[in-house]
Structures are given as C-alpha cells and as structure tokens.
Amino acid sequence: MAASLKDSPELLNSLQQELQAKSLMLAELELIIEDYEGERSKLLKELTALKERILDLAEGKEPQRKRE
Fold it and tell me: Residue 1's pLDDT is what?
C-alpha cells in the first residue's frame, strides 16, 4: 500500500527537490543546445563559403576577398 503524502512530508519534500533539480538541468541543457545550434549554423555558413571559393578556383575564377 502506498503511503499518503500526509504521512510522509519528507517524501513530498524530496520529490519537490528532485523536480526542481531536474527542471534546472533541463533549462541548462536547453541553453547548451541553443549555443550548439548557433555554432553549428555559423560553421555551416563558413563551410559553404569555403566550398564556393574552392569551386571558383577550380573553374579558374579570380578569388574574391572576404568581406568582414
């Protein structure tokens, strides 16, 4: 038979603490994912630009200076 929450306030406190800890972990993970996605997008753009430069060179086009 399961104990009621009235009978075990320690269990309730423990579960609330675990919920808070897991919520914090989730929030931190979401920030990590957001940072990862930003870095991934940036790298994909850089890779695309490099591939375009390689193709231009292979086709004999003059290289263009990178704008900053």
Answer: 47
In single-letter form, the type of residue at position 30 comes to E
CA-CA distance, 16 to 10, in Å (whole number)? Answer: 10
Straight-line distance from the first to the last Cα atom of the chain, in angstroms, rounded to the nearest whole number:
69
49: phi then psi, degrees, rounded to nearest 5? -65, -40
In angstroms, the CA 67 to CA 57 distance is 18
State how far the Cα of 47 lies from the Cα of 16, in Å rounded to an integer.
46
Q: What angle do CA 41, 43, 47 make, to 5 degrees?
A: 120
Is pTM beyond 0.85 here? Answer: no
Amino acid at 38: G
CB 8 within 8 A of CB 1: no
- In three-state secondary structure terms, 39 is helix
